[in-house]
Structure formats: C-alpha cells, structure tokens
TrEMBL record:
Domain Mycothiol-dependent maleylpyruvate isomerase metal-binding: 9-152
GO molecular function: metal ion binding
Protein name (database record): Mycothiol-dependent maleylpyruvate isomerase metal-binding domain-containing protein
NCBIfam families named among the record's database cross-references: maleylpyruvate isomerase family mycothiol-dependent enzyme
Annotated Pfam families: MDMPI_N
C-alpha cells in the first residue's frame, strides 16, 4: 500500500514524536482539553490507538470492507459513556510506564508495515468494523492530527500539523482538497472539530463523532 494516507501517517507521527522528545517533565503534567487527561495520558491514548494496528494486521482479512473512514465515526457504542470511561482508564493505566523515546521508531515501523500491504487490504477493528486498511489508517491520522492540536494547545506551543496530515483529515471532513478551503489548516481543523469558535466558512463540513 502506497500513497497519501501512509505518507500522512508517517509524517504526522514523526512530527508528534519529535515534539514530544523536547518536552520537559513539567510539560507532561499539564492539563488538556480532553479532561481528565493530562499531557502524558493523552499521549498514551494516541500511542494505544496506533498500537492496535499490528494485531489487526496479524489476523485474517475479512472478505470485504463494510465501513468507510467517515462511517467509523458514527455515534454508536464506540463513543458511549461506558466506552469513553474505559478509554480514559486505559490511558491512565498505561501513562506511568510511557517511554516517549521509542515513539518515532514505533510509528515508523507501523508505517513501513502498512506500506507493505496490498492496496485492497481489509482489516477488522476492535469495534468489529471491516474496513480497508487505507480507511482505518485515515482514522489514525485523525487521531494524530486532532490530538496533536490538543497537545500543542495544552503546552502553549505552535501546532506541528503537517501538510500531508492536514490534507487527509480536511478531505475527510469536507470532501475536497485542503487548498480549496479557507484559513490556516490548523485553525480550520480546530473549528471543524469544536476546538475553537467558528470564524471560518465551514460549508460542506461533515462532522465526525469524536470521543
């Protein structure tokens, strides 16, 4: 599998890993908008969401894809209070043992493994969805990009959103290229996901249910 989504995943994960490698210990304890998580727990959550990929690729592929990247974010049990509570606890449990030093290598290995898969590879998510790997990887780019903004804002740092990731996520949200959309991509993504007051033209936005 080659092309835009793998490139975006690789670029955005590397940018996050590079940024995180420079944070001081006090930075990791800063609160985020994703309460009750602090920076360390939110970073742990992102790593957890990426870490499910190897197990998915190790399983037999479903016969066909049934769910798109956009449909993955439908408002069902995956974003219920019970699921959210379990998601919160898992990140809190794993955060204390988090080793940021391996993140860039970990993400690079994941990107390489995905790139080696055929373009029609289908995987099954932990929620039971049969998806094209390219579509599931799109959802991982969403995790990296959106939570990357959450982390940058929590630390009062400039956003490190990469052009490839912005292109993938904004295309998912609006159905057209980022170059055709108004405003800086990081501002547009914040507004489109409810992370900032709306000041830009969001015509065509297809809102996603995000946990």
């Amino acid at each position: 599998m080659t092309g835009t989504v793998v490139d975006a995943f690789r670029a955005e994960a590397d940018a996050l890993g590079h940024a995180a490698s420079r944070w001081a210990e006090r930075d990791w304890a800063r609160p985020t908008r994703c309460a009750p998580w602090r920076v360390r727990e939110l970073f742990a959550h992102v790593r957890i969401t990426l870490g499910r990929l190897p197990g998915m690729l190790a399983e037999a592929a479903p016969e066909r894809a049934e769910v798109s990247a956009a449909a993955y974010y439908r408002p069902d049990h995956r974003f219920s209070p019970e699921t959210d509570a379990a998601r919160i606890r898992l990140a809190q449990d794993q955060a204390p043992g988090l080793d940021v030093r391996d993140f860039r290598g970990f993400a690079t290995a994941l990107a390489d493994r995905c790139a080696a898969e055929p373009p029609d590879r289908v995987v099954r998510t932990r929620h039971g969805d049969a998806m094209l790997l390219t579509d599931f990887l799109t959802t991982r780019v969403v995790e990296l990009a959106v939570h990357g903004l959450d982390l940058a804002d929590a630390l009062d740092r400039p956003a490190w959103l990469t052009p490839p990731a912005a292109g993938v996520v904004l295309s998912l949200l609006f159905g057209r290229p980022a170059a055709d959309l108004p405003g800086p991509p990081d501002r547009l993504l914040r507004e489109a996901t409810g992370r900032a007051p709306v000041t830009l033209d969001l015509t065509g936005l297809r809102p996603l249910t995000l946990g």
